[in-house]
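Section 4.2 – Deliverable D4.2 (structural model, holo form)

The reporting period included a commitment to supply a predicted holo structure for the target in complex with zinc ion. Inputs used:
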Amino acid sequence: MKFQLALATTLLLATEGLSRRTCGNNNPPVELIEQAILFEGMTKLKAGSDQADDDLAARAKYVPLHIHNVYVSQTRDQGYITEQDVQNQFKVLNDNFASTGIVFDLVSVSYTENKTWANAGSGSAAELAMKKSLRRGGYDELNIYIRPLRSGLLGYCTFPQANVAPNSDKFFLDGCDVLFSSVPGGSTVPFNEGKTATHEVGHWFGLFHTFQGGCTGGDFVDDTPAQGSATSGCPAGKDTCRGDQYPGVDPIHNYMDYSDDPCMTEFTTGQTTRIYQMWDQYRAPKW
Ligand SMILES: *[C@@H]1O[C@H](CO)[C@@H](O)[C@H](O)[C@H]1NC(C)=O
Ligand SMILES: [Zn+2]
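Output (structure tokens):
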């Protein structure tokens, strides 16, 4: 009895406060990095031409969205979220992506009680079984699994990939996993305004962390200043890459950094361009 109580307390603590953001997408595949470098070069070339004024608003893109809540049992501390929570998360996604022209269209919501699936780790057989059962739509449709994860991660996502055959394992695994308590009003302070989903979906569109590769590496997006390390909290003026070759302070307000939810407020114009470049390359409907 004592042991069980102690265990329950530990599990609660594990989800109720996190000292820093933890995302599973720190190592983009080499092919995607190479593609990002190509895109960065293309953007620079275009910047000098009259094609630069690509009207992004005119490209407003509707992305069908499927939200799946997979929980251990139907209570708030066991991974269950209400339909209102789903709506609130949906609204945050659309608000956060508004500047990009992306509009999510919530076309389905599913609820599944399955302890094995709720706690399944990235790359596990249970994760594949869950996604084979629950995933909806084509490669141009976003599936978000909101669940306990039990891995210490706030979330993880698949990056876009080339040649994903319909109904292959790669196809089924495509999507984002988000810790249930990170939804708006959830218990994972200070990551409980729903911006974990925004950050993860950024990866689904092909964006990297702004601190990817440190000062000399980068996310291969021109207008996000070089950043030497992930941000914790919201430290105004943080500047990890100094010197003439590194203009600007760290982009701590960017959704693709690791800052606390209240600190995250923007995607840049360059990231928006990148989202569309990646979309056209990998996710534009082909079937
Ligand atoms: C729950 O997950 C297990 C493990 O993948 C699976 O065998 C089982 O069919 C699932 N149950 C339901 C009701 O989906
Ligand atoms: Zn991330």
